[in-house]
Write a structure and sequence with these properties.
Alpha-Beta Plaits, 9 helices, 4-stranded antiparallel β-sheet, alpha+beta, Arc Repressor Mutant, subunit A, 3 domains, single chain, 10 strands
Length: 249
Amino acid sequence: MSGHSKWATIKRKKGAADAKRSNMFAKLLRAVEVAAREGGGNVEGNMTLASAVEKARSFSVPSDNIDRAIKRGTGELEGGARYEEITYEGYAPGGIALIVEALTDNRNRTAQEVRHAFTRNGGNLGETGSTLWMFQRKGVIVVEKAIAPDENVLLDLALQGGAEDLADSESSWDIVTDPQDFKEVETALRGAGVQVSSAEISMVPTTTIPVDGGEARHVLQLIDALEELDDVQNVYANFDIPEEVMSSL
């Protein structure tokens, strides 16, 4: 399992400025709105919406805001821009593969901003298909070890729910599922009293590249620069940076 989701978790635990928090709320609600527009407003029947809502809740986005975003997506409320999904591919320093998912109402603006972030931070924007083949779309449910049940108990619960794997991610367990089984596995875990730290549909790398020292800082600087762009929703990477190093940065 790559450490990009771990990096996001570490930053969330350390806290962020109000301006960045507000920007994150806007991004999360944009994702909820688009998911509802494309697949309907029923969370139980729309896997993408369920994942977007779960992620918004994990960042403490108010329920009223989430409900309004769903209604804007389904047309029950007026307002909101028409967004399209765009995926960019490229490389960070050290040959780390990146996938950048964006929702935008201005394709040219977003492309320019993403290209600038890559160039300014030592990365290279690639062609379509250059890195996507290194990742698989999976459900990822994170359970912190400090509050998790015994490993064998957690593994049994995950497998009974339909999970594919239980991966050791230093201070947490990452439960990997097929996207179609994601919600069922999460529901089974919560029903058994397991406290879930985060749960979302993600792009999981098939292999990872170890990164340490100064190069780790450069990789994470590029990822941060991309994530700070208003239109960028998600950044996925195939780096493997020790948790201790990420925490120090």
